[in-house]
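Q: My labmate handed me this sequence with no annotations at all. I'd like to see what the chain might look like in three dimensions before we decide whether it's worth expressing. Could you predict it?
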Amino acid sequence: MSTSLHIDNTLTKAERYKALVPQIQSLVAGETNLIANLANVSAALKEAFDFWWVGFYLVDGDQLVLGPFQGPVACTRLSRQRGVCAHAWVNKTTVNVPDVDAFPGHIACSSASKSEIVVPLIGMDGEVWGVLDVDSDKLNDFDNHDVAALEEIVNLISRP
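A: Here is what I predict for the chain of 160 residues:
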């Protein structure tokens, strides 16, 4: 397993994801510790795309609790009742928000966040056990390439 990424930042977003996915697969292959894998995935995404914030929230009862992340400090607990992460959790679907200020009930952990994408982590039992949350300091920064690639990446992470 390599401990460094090889991503050419002159590539298009789609090409960078294509190069990154197998490297993430290699990072998590054979590692059974969930926190280690979540930490490495957060770091890899932050390094490859320089997103404003990348991290995971893990289901704990009726809340999402902050897990491994890269970026400025974040909200520690999020309720199931409001916000982009809660919407992805409850609906078991990826949510791409081009302008967080226009999303009803958005929780502003940072005023620098302008757009956000949240991908649920769904276990073998069909239940959501966490979410991948990626924030950008640019409006409308996420597209179908992000949706497809981030969904592929979360499918590489298995909960032990």
